[in-house]
């Protein structure tokens, strides 16, 4: 569909500065961008991974602009991240799906607490059991996307160390109605919490603690003493 609009299937472009996906499409395929702005559904893949229009491109990458395949929502991403999280995805979802009949974007953003049990937290370290962790995260996002009225599902879960205030989990669900978006978000959060193998080590001013179950904390020194 989009190759018909652009007038070609494959093209190459040399760039001498950082461009966003939006800027690149406007440059090489303005008719495609016009269609997107009018509300035509799309998926943008950069080296095989779905990205928002404001994503900054590397110099050597492959970009594909595709219509959603038939058979339900295909606007899905679920991945672990390390470092800063780009929140431009949220604006992109509202711009993309508002004209298509979406009624709500439900978002959960979790971040590291700075104080726990009246003690200052230094950092929280997330350990993921891979590759099962990534597989399970993608599976749950896919299941959520198949619920009636769901148009898009995106999950970003932290791995590695995070400081107080750092984002640890982003879950975004676009739905045809407020109820669909909120209910699916709540369902997905509970499934992620209980089924994705992510383990948290909390480093505080009074020591290190493994966080298990529904917030129960076990001193790391106690665990180590059992193995000695």
TrEMBL record:
Entries under InterPro entries matching the protein: Beta-grasp_dom_sf, MoaE_sf, Mopterin_biosynth_MoaE, Mopterin_synth/thiamin_S_b, ThiS/MoaD-like
Domain of life the protein comes from: Archaea
Single Gene Ontology BP annotation: Mo-molybdopterin cofactor biosynthetic process
Protein name, entry field: MoaD family protein
